[in-house]
Amino acid sequence: MAAxxxxxxxxxxxxxxxxxxxxxxxxxxxxxxxxxxxTVENLNMVKRHVRPSRQNxxxxxxxxxxPLSVSNVMLVCSACNQPTRTGMRLLENGxxxxxxxxxxxxxxx
Length: 109
Description:
The protein is mostly beta strands. The protein has two domains: about 1-75, SH3 type barrels (Roll), CATH 2.30.30.30; about 75-109. Helix content is about 0%, strand content about 40%. The chain has no helices and ten strands. The protein has strands at about 15, 25-30, 35-40, 45-50, 60-65, 70, 75, 85, 85-90, 95-100. Strands 6-3-2-1-7-8 form a six-stranded antiparallel beta sheet, with no helix packed on it. It has a two-stranded antiparallel sheet with strand order 4-5. β2 (about 25-30) and β3 (about 35-40) form a beta hairpin. The chain starts with 12 loop residues before the first strand and ends in a 9-residue tail after the last strand.
């Protein structure tokens, strides 16, 4: 089975377009391709009750990021600083790169 491709990658700056975190921006920490979800740094925080273990001696209540749907985020273009749709473009050297559909600049550097 071929690997899925999303409009965002790990490390991209994204803006949340729907849900309780609407309008906030953050960096993508992890992408779950099989579930069409991703986690964004310091957004969609949930509290989890954790049992004591070797890594966490005390246990207790831990706050961590919960996954968001990929469809609820948009990539923030580094050139125009706006959330934008992206397209794929073939470069002169044969590589593929994402580009901003608003300002027509290459997003991947």
